[in-house]
């Protein structure tokens, strides 16, 4: 008890000494003097490089439906997938919206549990389950009704359509 009391008093004295302004004097740096600059000139810009013709404009507004940019693969070309490959966190994009999708291997009505986070649309917020039917990943609502059907175009990228006809991508 006595040792902890002494340690507490010692700590208090040390902190008090650190907080004192003893011999410290505040020093400030002098402000910089303004520097002259060259005047802005007006003139014609050089022509664009012809090799850049047809390239997307980096300053243009993004497309409104990012999921439409990559159509679902041909079912005969879709990759084989297994249920454990789908477990975990994913990004889901549809209709210009991007949010998180989490799929687990816990059984649920109509397949396995799934949920979304940060989605604004009712369609994506309603994802509650998923299942694998051959090469096709089916996202479902909590009652087991299909919301979207996706095919693997790469081991970590799935593309397809919602039942409402919107393009959907799921990727890591």
Short description:
The chain is of the alpha+beta class and 172 residues long. Helices cover 15% and strands 34% of the residues. The protein contains 3 helices and 8 strands, in the order H-H-E-E-E-H-E-E-E-E-E.
Structure description:
This protein is an alpha+beta fold. Helices cover 15% and strands 34% of the residues. The protein has helices at residues 2-19, 83-86, 122-125; strands spanning 88-94, 97-108, 111-117, 127-133, 136-141, 146-154, 157-162, 167-171. The chain has an 8-stranded antiparallel beta barrel. Strand 4 (127-133) and strand 5 (136-141) form a beta hairpin. The radius of gyration is 30 Å and the shape is flat. The model is unreliable at 63-69 (pLDDT under 50).
Fill in the keyword field for this structure:
172 residues; alpha+beta; eight-stranded antiparallel beta barrel
Indicate the low-confidence ranges by residue numbers: 63-69
Could you report the average pLDDT, rounded to the nearest whole number? Answer: 80
Cross-sheet strand order for the largest sheet: 1-2-3-4-5-6-7-8
Number of strand segments: 8
Distance between the termini: 57 Å
Number of helices: 3
Radius of gyration: 30 Å
The 3D shape can be described as: flat
Strand content: 25-35%
Order of helices and strands: HHEEEHEEEEE
Largest sheet: 8 strands, antiparallel, barrel
**SS class:** alpha+beta
Which range best describes the helical content: under 10%, 10-25%, 25-40%, 40-55%, 55-70% or over 70%?
A: 10-25%
